[in-house]
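Run log, item B.
One chain of 128 residues. Sequence copied directly from the ordering sheet:
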Amino acid sequence: MEKQQVSTSAAPGAIGPYSQAVKVGEFVYTSAQIPTLPGSGLVASGGIEGQTHQVFKNLSAVLEAAGSSLEKIVKATVFLKNMDDFAVVNAIYVSYFRAGTVLPARSAVQVVRLPKDVLVGIEVIALA
């Protein structure tokens, strides 16, 4: 199976030597998306709520560019600067999935620091 690079200007460009996502066979592997705005690279406003919504906008754009969508996510990893934000992120997270559907498997970890000192980042594996 060949790797295909996934890239879209509808999501922030990579800020290092990596791809926004890689598609292999029937799977899409995204890099962690952080809450930066496409084009400007500025961090979304609105604290953890605004940043979490922006992360999902970025994930959605990358997945769409790969021929996938949020509904096709099978595994997510959430990186939090502060585990005290866990409940707020959970409430926003679940709002991006249809009620009654199988939610993705997920891990959530607190990290010391994220790029650009953001509060949250999420990477996913999805079906193509």
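Observations after the first pass:
- The CA atoms of residues 38 and 105 lie 27 Å apart.
- Helices lie at 47-65, 86-95.
Flagged for discussion on Thursday.
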